[in-house]
Design goal:
Number of strands: 5
Structural class: alpha/beta
Number of domains: 1
Distance between the termini: 19 Å
Strand order of the largest sheet: 2-3-1-4-5
CATH topology: Rossmann fold
Largest sheet: 5 strands, parallel
CATH architecture: 3-Layer(aba) Sandwich
Shape: globular
Low-confidence stretches: none
């Protein structure tokens, strides 16, 4: 078990602001970042599939069906270990199975969630326009149901810290900085 690194697991529904607010702020504060979704996007591309919501979602479910609910987290633990920084954010936790993997590997693990309303999240994702983002409400809802189906709601509910992200980006970044400081102080005691 790694006792040196402070690892903050980040969960939240798509479009809640995990990347734009928390990851960006954490990088400004010197954190390294591991994005769990990158593992799925890499696998999707490896299979020769277009990066779109249906294909990425299908690959996520197939990976879990074939290799268990821990597969993405297990692939990320080595990426976290390889980071030279002692502070790492792992973005994109979707289940308590994944939380347990990180808790078993990292003594200083903390779970943080970001929450925004469905309407706010849809607007953000639609504006972001990444290839795997939904471009209509039906795809958005379908993605939410898939995420909830793998257990993201349980991870969100069990987070030690929650950032409500309905205000400006600047206001959310202030909350994130305060929360990261609190997490670091907790582990330095």
């Amino acid at each position: 078990m790694n006792t040196d690194k402070i690892v903050i697991g980040l969960t939240g529904m798509p479009g809640s602001g995990k990347s734009l607010v928390v990851v960006e702020t954490a990088q400004e504060l010197g954190y390294d970042i591991v994005v769990m979704g990158d593992v799925i996007r890499e696998e999707t591309q490896k299979r020769g599939l277009e990066l779109n919501p249906k294909n990425v979602g299908k690959v996520m479910l197939e990976l879990r069906d074939a290799h268990g609910d821990n597969v993405i987290a297990e692939k990320c633990t080595s990426k976290i270990e390889q980071k030279e920084n002692a502070k790492v954010i792992v973005e994109g936790i979707r289940s308590l199975h994944e939380v347990n993997v990180f808790k078993a590997h990292f003594a200083k693990f903390t779970l943080m969630s970001v929450h925004s309303s469905p309407e706010t999240r849809f607007k953000r994702l639609f504006s972001r326009g990444r290839s795997d983002d939904p471009n209509n409400w039906e795809l958005f809802h379908e993605r939410d149901m898939r995420e909830l189906g793998v257990g993201i709601g349980n991870a969100i509910a069990m987070a030690q810290f929650m950032i409500i992200n309905e205000e400006s980006k600047e206001a959310a970044k202030i909350k994130v900085k305060e929360t990261l400081k609190e997490v670091e102080e907790n582990w330095s005691k």
